[in-house]
């Protein structure tokens, strides 16, 4: 989303009005879920996707019309082959919000600027849409800034995008930035491949290594942060929180073993280790002898990645990325369920 935010902000700064097309909610089988975005200008499609096919084509056409009218709206789509529907085979339903973004609107530009800032510094933040009549007002929330433009109950700031009605207005609230990080311990072939595929999937990625020559933008062009570290440092500590992911792909089994023990002392939601069956057996025994329980070692995903028969570093990176996407989706579902139970 950060790339799309930059595009929108730059276009508005260049005095170009835009239409932001957003999936607010979906039911059944649909190409994309809540929070999918697409941008349309007066000439048609610009960037992003809400799923392709006929729904996207219809929304591009509708977005161009609304852009000429300087208006916003919500439209429901049935993705079935029945007469009057979109003629798609998905069979689900989607509620789509069309948001007119006026280049001259000061609040819109202010909100988008804050979104970009929070995305760049990796701070949790939410984008708020309020539709009243045919006009949308944007708002923003982060812990440091609090509310900008719109104020809503804080219990509406959830881990997944939500929509609701209140006092004659429709609201759509979307987490637009997160403080979760992926820590890759090792910048070798697999670490480098991972550092290339994870940032485009909206994983903030930090690489640690003890080889200064590998920690360069030329070698790791997509990585968000790099850190030169001595893995043998006696008082080495790892800063992972319960939101974070730790991936061990260092250049030595000894370093891997130490990192495994250190990661198990953190609340990280995911710990993954590149390992063979023999290495897993040896390291598991060593961890148990060091006092870690079965429950502790069960936290480790090893061998790392989904079982797709990956062999090359690039293939392994795809399998690991897929497992992280799966873990993130599962965690969001768990958190959403917990939030629902506490209401």
From TrEMBL:
It comes from the Bacteria. Gene3D superfamilies: NAD(P)-binding Rossmann-like Domain. Residues 182-324 form the XdhC Rossmann domain. Residues 12-77 form the XdhC- CoxI domain. InterPro entries: MoCofactor_Util/Proc (IPR052698), XdhC_CoxI (IPR003777), XdhC_Rossmann_dom (IPR027051). PANTHER family: ALDEHYDE OXIDOREDUCTASE MOLYBDENUM COFACTOR ASSEMBLY PROTEIN, XANTHINE DEHYDROGENASE SUBUNIT A-RELATED. This is Xanthine dehydrogenase accessory factor.
């Amino acid at each position: 989303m950060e790339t799309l935010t930059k595009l929108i902000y730059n276009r508005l700064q260049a005095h170009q009005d835009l239409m932001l097309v957003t999936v607010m909610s979906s039911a059944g089988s649909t190409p994309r879920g809540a929070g999918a975005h697409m941008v349309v200008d007066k000439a048609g499609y610009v960037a992003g996707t809400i799923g392709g096919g006929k729904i996207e084509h219809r929304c591009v056409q509708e977005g161009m019309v609304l852009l000429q009218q300087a208006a916003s709206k919500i439209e429901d789509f049935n993705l079935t082959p029945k007469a009057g529907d979109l003629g798609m085979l998905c069979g689900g339903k989607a509620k789509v919000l069309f948001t007119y973004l006026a280049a001259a609107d000061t609040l819109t530009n202010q909100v988008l600027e804050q979104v970009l800032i929070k995305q760049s510094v990796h701070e949790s933040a939410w984008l708020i849409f309020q539709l009243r009549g045919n006009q949308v007002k944007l708002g923003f929330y982060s812990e440091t800034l609090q509310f900008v433009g719109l104020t809503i109950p804080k219990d509406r700031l959830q881990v997944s995008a939500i929509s609701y009605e209140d006092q004659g207005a429709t609201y759509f609230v979307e987490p637009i930035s997160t403080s979760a990080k992926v820590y890759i311990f090792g910048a070798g072939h697999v670490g480098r491949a991972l550092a290339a595929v994870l940032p485009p999937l909206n994983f903030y990625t930090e690489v640690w290594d003890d080889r200064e020559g590998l920690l360069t933008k030329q070698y790791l062009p997509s990585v968000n942060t790099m850190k030169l570290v001595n893995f043998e440092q006696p008082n080495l500590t790892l800063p992972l929180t319960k939101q974070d992911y730790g991936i061990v792909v260092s250049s030595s089994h000894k370093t891997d073993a130490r990192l495994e023990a250190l990661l198990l002392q953190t609340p990280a939601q995911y710990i993954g280790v590149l390992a063979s069956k023999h290495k897993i057996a040896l390291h598991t025994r060593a961890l148990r002898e060091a006092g870690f329980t079965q429950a502790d070692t069960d936290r480790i995903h090893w061998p790392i990645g989904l079982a797709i028969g990956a062999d090359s570093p690039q293939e392994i990176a795809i399998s690991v990325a897929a497992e992280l996407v799966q873990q993130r989706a599962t965690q969001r579902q768990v958190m959403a369920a917990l939030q629902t139970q506490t209401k």
